[in-house]
Amino acid sequence: MKPDCRFPRTGIGYDVHRFAEGRRLVLGGVEIPHERGLDGHSDADVVLHAIADAILGAAALGDIGTHFPPSDARWGGADSRVLLSLVDDLARDAGWMVVNIDVTVIAEAPKINPHAAAMRAELSRCLDLDEGAISLKATTNEGMGFVGRGEGIAAIATAMIAPLDGLSE
Fold it and tell me: pLDDT tens-digit profile of 42-59?
C-alpha cells in the first residue's frame, strides 16, 4: 500500500550567493548595512531563496529556478519577498499550507542576530505565518571554504507543510 501523500511533508532548501560590489545586502527580506551585497539575478536574498526551495520541495513543485528562472528578464532585480509570497500561493494552490520554517544563515559577516527579529517579522508577513513558527539562526564557517573566506553567504532551510483540508485519515 502506497503512503497517502496528504500527510504533512518536509522539504529542504539551500542557496548561496557570492558578494558583489555596488549591491545592497538583503537577507530575510531585510536590508542590512554592509559594504557589499550579494550577486544574483533578483535581490539575491539567500534566506528567502532557501525557504522558497524548501517549500517547493516539500510540495513536490520543483525549485525556485523552475518558477523564476534567471533567464527570464521579469525576475531581474526582483524583491524575493514577492517571490516567496508567490511560492506560498503555489503551495496553497496545490492544497498545502506552510506549518513552520527553520533556517540557518551561514556567514562570517555581517552579524545576523541583530536583524533576526526583523527577518522573522518579514517571513511572518510573506507567509502569513505566526512568528512562533519561524526559527532563524546563524553560524559561521569558522574561516573555512568560500563562506569562511568571506566570499559569500549561504543559507539552508527546512519547511513543513500540511494539507489545507486537514490530515488524512
Answer: 999 999 999 999 999 999
Task: Find out whether 85 and 146 touch, Cβ atoms under 8 Å.
Answer: no
Classify domain 11-163 by CATH architecture. 2-Layer Sandwich (3.30)
Q: What's the burial of 113, exposed, middle or buried (CB within 10 Å: 0-12/13-18/19+)?
A: exposed
**Binding-site residues from annotation:** 15-17, 41-42, 49, 63-65, 139-142, 146, 149
Query: What is the pTM (predicted TM-score) of this model?
Result: 0.93
Neighbours of 93 (CB within 10 A): 11
Nearest to 149 by CA among 107, 113, 110: 107
Sequence ranges of the domains in the chain? 11-163
Q: What is the pLDDT of residues 124-133, one digit of tens each?
A: 999 999 999 9
What residue numbers does the annotated binding site for a divalent metal cation cover?
Answer: 15, 17, 49
CB atoms inside a 10 Å sphere around CB 6: 16
CA distance 50 to 12: 8
